[in-house]
Write a structure and sequence with these properties.
Subunit structure: V-ATPase is a heteromultimeric enzyme composed of a peripheral catalytic V1 complex (components A to H) attached to an integral membrane V0 proton pore complex (components: a, c, c', c'', d, e, f and VOA1).
Organism: Phellinidium pouzarii
InterPro entries: ATPase_V1-cplx_f_g_su (IPR008218), ATPase_V1-cplx_fsu_euk (IPR005772), ATPase_V1_fsu_sf (IPR036906)
CATH class: Alpha Beta
CATH superfamily: ATPase, V1 complex, subunit F
Structural class: alpha/beta
Largest sheet: 4 strands, parallel
Number of strands: 4
Keywords: Hydrogen ion transport, Ion transport, Membrane, Transport, Vacuole
Helix content: 25-40%
GO molecular function: proton-transporting ATPase activity, rotational mechanism
Length: about 120
C-alpha cells in the first residue's frame, strides 16, 4: 500500500507554530537537504508559499500537511484545488489568528457532501 511510505508531517506556518511542532519532534531533513517545514513571516512571498505547498503535496514521504489557516488564505485558490487524499491537508489556527471553520476548504467539501 502506498500510504506505508508516508511517515512525515509537513508544516507551512508562522514561527510560533513551527517552533512548537519542531519541539514536538516533527522536524526532518532528507538526503537532498529538503526540510519538511516552511516558516512564513511578513516578508515571505506568496510564490514561495505556493512552491512549498506544491513540493509537500508531491512528496511521497509526507502523510499530513499542516498549514496555518491565515497562510492558506494567501494561496486559497491553490489550497481549494488540492483534492488528493495523501498527504492529508489540515488547516490549523495560530496564536494570533483563530480558526474560522467558514474558510476551511476541507470542511467546505464535507459540508457540500452532506448537503449542509
Amino acid at each position: 500500500m502506498a500510504s506505508i511510505e508516508r511517515t512525515l508531517l509537513a508544516v507551512i506556518g508562522d514561527e510560533d507554530s513551527i517552533t512548537g511542532l519542531l519541539l514536538a519532534g516533527i522536524g526532518h531533513v532528507n538526503e537532498q537537504q529538503k526540510k519538511n517545514f516552511l516558516i512564513v513571516d511578513g516578508k515571505t512571498q506568496e510564490s514561495t508559499i505556493e512552491a512549498a505547498f506544491q513540493e509537500y503535496t508531491e512528496r511521497k514521504d509526507i502523510a499530513i500537511l499542516l498549514i496555518n489557516q491565515h497562510i492558506a488564505e494567501k494561496i486559497r485558490p491553490t489550497v481549494d484545488k488540492y483534492q488528493q487524499p495523501f498527504p492529508a491537508l489540515l488547516e490549523i489556527p495560530s496564536k494570533d489568528h483563530p480558526y474560522d471553520p467558514s474558510k476551511d476548504s476541507i470542511l467546505k467539501r464535507v459540508q457540500k457532501l452532506f448537503g449542509d
